[in-house]
Design goal:
Chains A, B: This is Histidinol dehydrogenase. Two copies of one chain form a homodimer. Chain A has helices at about 15-20, 30-45, 45-55, 70-80, 85-100, 140-155, 170-180, 190-200, 215-225, 250-260, 275-290, 295-305, 315-325, 360-365, 400-415, 420-430, and strands at about 5, 70, 110, 120-125, 130, 160, 185, 210, 230, 240-245, 270-275, 310, 330-335, 350-355, 390-395. With about 425 residues, the first copy, chain A, is of the alpha/beta class.
Chain lengths: ~425, ~425
């Protein structure tokens, strides 16, 4: 494989790094128009429109709207029908993910200030959440767990899953994961029409307050467009991994970690930073050796050759600086003392620390979420979590005494802003 | 004034309420095209483009790019030049807002599981935040405090403010508030060109990680478009208040509270819910009486007549149900026992409890933020807070022992998903 080699000592390193990281989604006007038409049609015709699109795009001859919903017994049967090892693995993963996310639950709080005014915030779960799960090849049961469990931990009352089943083909692992995660209802619809149904509601499909979960370009466009009618999670770009290695990890391990990102799709980005030039070549040799045994070798090769890089750095401190510039989705610290690097790392979706912590362990079962900010958005965004399924209402209860002092301040500032009703409303209380 | 009266006993109440709440932003294609062109021009030409647009739109004859920045001494002078009462009011408000928001600071945490694997999350502030402040009439110093202080409390290292100064007119209260809030740099630019400068950076204006603050339709469109390059706060719709009153509050107070929302703009929405029909008419009479003394009476009248409503409800429980359906930005509980209503209230930006708690006290100085979710988005969004200026990175450090158990689970699930590199990467650690 011909993977790009860079060195921070290159005179034009900054420009080369920028070029490597550059990724701009191209706007597809035809797709946008199609999605806009589907959303508007579902808004207008409801179930009838959803049925039409599902018959057309998924070749699913649904008799009526009721046929879109899967009975819960089918989810349970899928779960019970799994091979024992798979069922146990899914259960253990769900337990660990639940247990981690329980630490994220926020609680309401209040306090009294000196003049008896109560201030606080009330934390409540969202009422109803929609979970989009892709059909076909990219149907990942782990993704069902990672999206559904934080919502359940947050206390969301109702979780509605949509999953397209083109030609009627159902993914048993996905249905089993839905059962295990406590998904309340499942509809076998997908695409922009499913997003529209969740956002606007139909006679059969209830309106949700937020839509989460990955999807193709149609789904992403639909989510962007319904934002406001309901909430959405982030729109993910291609997946990325940055591995920082001191040169002391088995090069086969590091090469396979780069592969595990690259195998997702041709646009995935896998980058290694190391101060050890010989180690970089050892990883490249491992990659060449290991590639042949990979069923997805063509995807891996394309991703690594087009978007991957092996970068020689001066030392681990410089590696941290570059990592902060990249703000990677996944950051592996394959070093002897990862703890000492933490204070220097400002932006990353998830940090996998130490030689034993492959990204894949975190993807499936360590506990933290695998839905992470991509394309440098870790500069300002966070992993999916319980936070995304709770919301806060500020609480203010001003005492009679507080109304004196606060009324004077508010009136002064309101007059300064030319908002006399605001001022008057404060003065009524002050002078009561 | 002719304010709409509704009753939940009306047979078509649901439909009438839906119609009252309906608000759809109309897409303005010409505006969108203008904004797209400005963004692309600033991305390409940087400072030169920003200077051109500022000269054109704000009639500001800037000599060069350096002239866009205000010296910090000018902010300090503005603060020191305020009348003492105004300066003190601003200081007291800033203290209270800071003190409330300090309670929102999130800290990093970690824990060890049974097999010695460390899990946790590292919380870090955003590096650099841009604060948009509108120029002209809608220039509110309180808004500077509410946007800047949570960022400072979160630990954001650098806060960049942009504020247009059309024809060179500067708002001294706004500059004073910037000084008080610890804003680091101020540029006298606005509109889509300012948003573009913050999002993409120019030679003179540094790239920020997130842009917050209100603005007109051009600013809102620009913020939507740069989202992804940087983070943005919510895009606010027209402001709203819902007052629930048991009929025992002075009707003048309630009428003035409705006015204080209505005076913002003609599209603002003010609604009263009360089980006391006579009280509703008393509030209407107060409104007629008080309107004449209001400098902004035309705006108030238009807003109340077009989008306001006085709604007769069966009881306070029913009022809570309707409030949950509306998910109001501001919710006033002008009742004897507001605490007892809290458990029934699921969705609201801020809840103002008791007869003394006018919304205006919360807008300026009670402590909580006045940037709140509008148009029913309180179903899934929260007030602006320290949370919006911090982000989380998941931490995972798997022990040698943990790699045995987690490796087995991850490999089983990865094989199930057809991701062999993920599985192999986990097995390398398991079998080490």
């Amino acid at each position: 494989m011909n993977i790009t080699r860079l060195s921070t000592r290159d005179t034009d390193f900054d420009a080369k790094l920028s070029k490597l990281l550059a990724f701009e989604e191209t706007a597809d006007e035809k797709l946008e128009a199609t999605v806009a038409a589907i959303l508007s049609d579902v808004k207008k015709r409801g179930d009838a429109a959803v049925l039409d699109y599902t018959r057309k795009f998924d070749r699913l001859p649904l008799a009526d709207a009721a046929a879109m919903e899967l009975p819960k017994s089918e989810l349970q049967a899928a779960f019970e029908g799994l091979p024992a090892a798979q069922r146990t693995a899914l259960e253990r993963a769900a337990q660990r993910v639940t247990s981690y996310h329980q630490k994220q639950v926020q609680s309401s709080w209040t306090y009294l200030d000196d003049d008896g005014t109560m201030l606080g915030q009330q934390v409540t779960p969202l009422d109803r959440v929609g979970l989009y799960v892709p059909g076909g090849k990219a149907a990942y049961p782990s993704s069902v767990l990672m999206n559904a469990l934080p919502a359940k931990v947050a206390g969301v009352a109702e979780l509605i899953m949509v999953v397209p089943t083109p030609d009627g083909v159902k993914n048993q692992l996905v249905l089993a994961a839905a059962h295990l995660s406590g998904v309340d209802r499942v509809f076998t619809i997908g695409g922009a029409q499913a997003v529209a149904a969740l956002a606007y509601g139909t006679a059969s499909i209830p309106t949700v307050d937020k839509i989460v979960g990955p999807g193709n370009a149609y789904v992403a466009s639909a989510k962007r467009r319904v934002f406001g009618a309901c909430g959405i999670d982030m729109i993910a770009g291609p997946s990325e991994i940055l591995v920082i290695c001191d040169g002391q990890t088995n090069p086969d391990w590091v090469a396979m970690d780069l592969f595990s990102q690259a195998e997702h799709d041709e646009l995935a980005q896998a980058i290694l930073l190391s101060p050890d030039a010989a180690f970089i070549e050892a990883v490249a040799a491992s990659a060449d050796k290991l590639l042949e045994q990979m069923p997805r070798k063509e995807i891996i090769k394309t991703a690594l050759e087009n978007r991957g890089a092996l970068i020689h750095v001066a030392d681990l401190d410089e590696a941290c600086d570059i990592s902060n510039r990249i703000a990677p989705e996944h950051l592996e610290l394959s070093v002897a003392d990862p703890q000492s690097m933490l204070p220097k790392l400002k932006h990353a979706g998830a940090i996998f620390m130490g030689r034993y912590t492959s990204e894949s362990l975190g993807d499936y079962c360590a506990g933290p979420n695998h839905v992470l900010p991509t394309s440098g958005t870790a500069r300002f965004s966070s992993p999916l979590g319980v936070y995304d399924f709770q919301k806060r209402s500020s609480l203010i209860q001003v005492s009679a005494q507080g109304a004196q002092t606060l009324g004077a301040i508010a009136a002064e500032l309101a007059f300064g802003e030319g908002l006399q009703a605001h001022a008057q409303s404060a003065l009524f209380r002050k002078n009561a």
